[in-house]
Amino acid sequence: MSLSLKRAIRYLICLVVVLGVLFIGLKYQQHLFTVSRETYEIKGYLLFGSSFPIFLGTVLAIPRILQRVSKKGHWKVSWLRLIIIGLPFLYLSIIPILYFTGLFKDLPLSKFVFGYFGENESTTLNAIIGVIAGYIIVTSLYKRKD
Predict the structure, then answer these.
(1) What is the mean pLDDT of the chain?
(2) Mind listing the pLDDT tens digit for each residue in 123-140?
(3) Using an 8 Å Cβ cutoff, are 116 and 128 in contact?
(4) Count of CB atoms situated within 10 Å of the CB of 53
(5) How far is the first Cα of the chain from the last one, in angstroms, to the nearest whole number?
């Protein structure tokens, strides 16, 4: 099998996996939304809405991690990338989780995440932040030849 055909098959597999995770996750989020409307219990819906983008970001990083797994060497962590980029995005994406667990009520930057857009708040910001957090954290792992 030629190299370009193998690459095309890998891209198609990645496409199917990412779209599958996306559609199943969005379907489950819709189910949680329906349940929250019927029971007035919105906690599960909001917690899933905060954690699913992080999971999606990790799924998007799978091809890069698989490339690194095939290389020889020892696993290392890019601490600078993780601390400067990954942790702030992770913090912003899990603010709703921390808030609804009841452990922390007044968190720095929580107004930015919860109500930056006022009454017409957009969940797009939370989704983008979560995907970036998941992707950056997973891709901070790499292999280095010693």
Answers:
(1) 84
(2) 777 888 999 999 999 999
(3) no
(4) 23
(5) 33
Separation between Cα atoms, residue 115 and residue 99, nearest integer Å: 14
DSSP 21-71: HHHHHHHHHHHHHHHHHHH---HHHHHHHHHHHHHHHHHHTHHHHHHHHHS
CA dihedral for 70, 75, 80, 81, sign (positive or negative): positive
Question: Residue 142: phi, psi to the nearest 5?
Answer: -150, 170
67: which 2 tokens? 């490339």
The amino acid sitting at 92 is L
Amino acid at residue number 43: K
Cα angle, residue 65 at apex, residues 64 and 66 outer, rounded to 5°: 90
The first and second tokens of residue 10, run together, are 């890998």
* Alpha-carbon torsion angle 103, 109, 111, 117, nearest 10: -140
Question: pTM for this one?
Answer: 0.82
